[in-house]
Amino acid sequence: MDYEMTPFEKEMEENLLTMRDNLLAKISKSDNDFRNLVGSSGSGDSVDIASDDLASKKMEAIGRIDAGKLNSINQAIVRIRNGKYGVCALCGKKIPEERLRAIPYALLCMPCKRKQEH
């Protein structure tokens, strides 16, 4: 038996799919930029090498953040399709639509998110 999505869930799935496509395009571009950066290093003085190293570390950090966000987006899409979207992973209460519109891949309601941050 297939789960019948609500109009809100359909809207959120479309938003998440768009977010995923945009993020994949950004990751792909960053990956190409990183390859170009690595390919261009190897010549120059120590200042150039240090600058390239700093740029590559920054790109790696951005890549990790994007990979985490991509994972969160994919998990949210699965939750929508399984009928478990919009339910707080800690307390089990419904996450308000306003929060999900702001962060479509949110796992926690605001009270639980605040508890987690402290």
Question: What does this protein structure show overall?
Answer:
By secondary structure, this protein is mainly alpha-helical. The protein has two domains: 1-85, Up-down Bundle (Four Helix Bundle (Hemerythrin (Met), subunit A)); 86-118, no CATH class. The chain has helices at residues 7-40, 46-82, 97-102, 110-117. α1 (7-40) runs antiparallel to α2 (46-82).
Q: How do the strands and helices of this protein lay out in sequence?
A:
Elements: H1 7-40, H2 46-82, H3 97-102, H4 110-117
Q: What would you call the shape? A: flat
Cα(first) to Cα(last) distance is 41 Å
Named CATH architecture of the largest domain:
Up-down Bundle
Name of the level-1 CATH class of the largest domain? Mainly Alpha
Number of helices: 4
Q: Helix-strand pattern, N to C?
A: HHHH
Tally the beta strands: 0
Q: What count of domains describes the coordinates?
A: 2
Structure summarized in a few sentences:
The chain has helices at residues 7-40, 46-82, 97-102, 110-117. The protein folds into 2 domains: 1-85, Four Helix Bundle (Hemerythrin (Met), subunit A) (Up-down Bundle), CATH 1.20.120.910; 86-118, no CATH class. It is mostly helical.
Q: Which descriptors would you attach to this protein?
A:
single chain; 118 residues; mainly alpha; Four Helix Bundle (Hemerythrin (Met), subunit A); 4 helices; 0% strand
